[in-house]
Amino acid sequence: MAEAVFHPPRRKRRVFESYEGPFPVDVGGKDFRMCQAEIINNHVIVRNPEDIEQLYNKGYFGKGILSRSRPVFSISDPLLVAKWQGVNTNMPIITSQKFSCLLFPRYQRRVQWARSVLQEQGLDDCSVTQILENYTKPLELTQPGAEQTANNRMGPNTENTELSSQSRADPGSAGALSPEDQNGGSGKACLEGDAGMGPVCGCEQQEQGDSRGLQEGSCQKGGAAVLGGCEGKQSPEQRAGQGGEAKQNAPEYVLVQEEEEGSSCPEDDSASLQGNLVKKEKLVCRKNPFRIFEYLQLSLEEAFFLVYALGCLSIYYGEEPLSILKLWQVFSEVKPDFKTTYMAYHYFRSRGWVPKVGLKYGTDLLLYRKGPPFYHASYSVLAELVDDDFQGSLRRPLSWMSLSGLNRTTANASKELMLCYLIKPSDMTAEEMSSPECMKRIRVQVQALVLNGQLWSGS
């Protein structure tokens, strides 16, 4: 057999980001940050926004639970953002209750979700309706002016104020304002005065009667924060990052596109134009009753590499941080072939590749050069644990027919199939395999299967 022929990675045509670093650790140790995650339903989840940015931007670890890869989920409707391009605000713009489409309106959908959660808490329909009406009532919008006082408060304005189309800013960045009233009451929202400044007006507290049922804040469950008279149990990550906790507990303001009442009128008095109606639309500021937060989900291999190899991640189960040995045992129980896939992941990650899960191509790993934003995946990897004589209970016994089909699937995606054999000594016991220290005695041999079906070997 000849040496393996490794083809150069295929670079993507359009790259919209810069390369920061291969690992989320600082060589000098000055800016070292210990990130935190937790195990939820056998999945490793990172909740802290700063930890998410650190882990994904430096090394492309994990993926957003609501996005394809990078966690960039936003509730904003891109079509509405483009339509109201002249609005100077950083609040998300979503559809209203009167959106004439087969799809359920985005804002009304969140109201229904919040209603369902409140009903599950035992509240009667009358109380639920009153809570939602008080929480989602229209808020006043004020524009920045020269007469603002020292504490950035401005005079009152009429509700449902129509936004001026003459202001200039990019509304694409979706963010929540930071109100003073965190009891769910109605307040005063505002437009952003400058891209580098915060809101130019404060928030007025609501009467106590309007915040009935909301005194305890919000409940967070499964990546969502909803209204309710209960207080969710805080995770270690939320306690560690007080800034992220305050941001998640604070109400989120959104701009809802609605039709003005009685705005549908004919363009001309002629009876022949009765069918041509003009609908005047406006943006109304409301509170989002059901917030959805995007978290970062790490594969078991990525999570263990961050803990064991880099030492920049702590994983909690409930209130207890798990040790390296405990994680090795827990992950092996959750995923029986975890030892095999992790040793392959550790091998390729240590050599500059960015391995990702290769489930959609029927393999264990996909190998990227630098990261998914820069290059297409070059190889699809199958990992097998064998002994010195290449014997053992194979995880995926391959016949020539199945191997040919898998190779064709990989070739159609402009990749090459790679077989990764993890060779353990014949005298290695099960007790040694119960610790990650067994990797010190493991040898690795890789074989690339080229298009003509001939097998080339390498190491």
Please give the structural blueprint.
Blueprint: E1 35-40, E2 43-46, H1 49-57, E3 63-64, H2 78-83, E4 93-95, H3 106-120, H4 125-135, E5 218-221, E6 224-227, H5 236-240, H6 242-249, E7 253-259, E8 265-266, E9 277-278, E10 281-287, E11 290-292, E12 296-298, H7 300-310, E13 313-317, E14 320-321, H8 324-334, H9 338-349, E15 353-357, E16 365-369, E17 379-386, H10 400-412, E18 416-423, H11 430-433, E19 443-449, E20 455-458
Parallel strand pairs: 1-13, 4-7, 17-18
Antiparallel strand pairs: 1-2, 2-12, 3-12, 5-6, 6-11, 7-10, 8-9, 13-14, 15-16, 16-17, 18-19, 19-20
What would you note in describing this structure?
The protein has 459 residues and is of the alpha+beta class. Helices cover 23% and strands 20% of the residues. It contains eleven helices and 20 strands. Helix 3 crosses helix 4 (125-135) and helix 7 runs antiparallel to helix 8. The radius of gyration is 28 Å and the shape is elongated.
